[in-house]
Amino acid sequence: MNSAPSGSEATQARGAFEALHPKVQEWVWKQGWTQLRAVQASAVQPILDGAVDIIISAATASGKTEAAWLPICSALATQAQKEPPQPGVKVLYVSPLKALINDQHSRLLDLCEAIDIPVNRRHGDVAGKERDSLRTAPDGALLITPESLEALFVLQGTRIPAIFASLQYVVIDEMHSFIGTERGAQLQSLLHRLELAIRRPVRRIGLSATFADFSVAQE
């Protein structure tokens, strides 16, 4: 539908926008957006509140990626103002597909650059300097497949606590594709091992376009 948003939707979108960090607000304005989409406005405060894990479920091309990353980047930017940035990956994004990681990498570079955090990829087709940066100076956002995350445990197991010392968010894209599958069980195990390595739980944000029953994703 192309109808104008209702007054309550516009008010919610305005309030959500105003809750974002000024650097993130500036990025939104540079995109030429007149206001946040409904799913984006709805996600801002729950993510900023930092209390619970979240599932963002909405139609394809509805803005789910930004619904997660706008408040995540806002929270990171606010934190950076209050205390010196600490080394280590801050956000772990897990995707089932290398092609999706490459697409999201392109989309996120500009947004994350606005708050001065790097975005790195890790999958079988990534090599050279980008791969080495995770070993030499882990920071910012890491986009990865479950298989590459497992390889990271194998190849750099003793460094996992240092690499993810500052981890605050795990974003799981296409979450429905992991439910009830061997890859899903693998991912659950990997995330459990990661939390054991850094000795604390990490907030999880799931993205999906196809959840009809949210209870299947609660574990």
How would you portray this structure in words?
- The protein has helices at 7-19, 22-30, 38-49, 64-82, 98-114, 129-136, 146-156, 160-163, 182-198, and strands at 54-57, 88-94, 119-122, 139-144, 169-172, 203-208.
- With 219 residues, the chain is an alpha/beta fold.
- The chain has a six-stranded parallel sheet, with helices on both faces.
- The model has no long low-confidence stretch (mean pLDDT 89).
Secondary-structure topology with pairs:
Blueprint: H1 7-19, H2 22-30, H3 38-49, E1 54-57, H4 64-82, E2 88-94, H5 98-114, E3 119-122, H6 129-136, E4 139-144, H7 146-156, H8 160-163, E5 169-172, H9 182-198, E6 203-208
Parallel strand pairs: 1-6, 2-4, 2-5, 3-4, 5-6
Helix pairs in contact: 1-3, 3-4, 4-5
Provide a compact summary of the structure.
The protein has 219 residues and is of the alpha/beta class.
Key attributes of the depicted protein:
219 residues; globular; 50% helix; 6-stranded parallel beta sheet; single chain; alpha/beta
Q: Percent of residues in helical segments?
A: 40-55%
Total strands:
6
**Strand count, sense and closure of the main sheet?**
6 strands, parallel
> Which strand order do you get reading across the main beta sheet?
1-6-5-2-4-3
> What's the mean pLDDT score?
89
* Rg (C-alpha, Å): 17 Å
Weakly predicted, low-confidence segments: none
Written as H for each helix and E for each strand, in order along the chain, the element string is HHHEHEHEHEHHEHE
Strand content: 5-15%
Distance between the termini: 34 Å
Shape: globular
Structural class: alpha/beta
Number of helices: 9
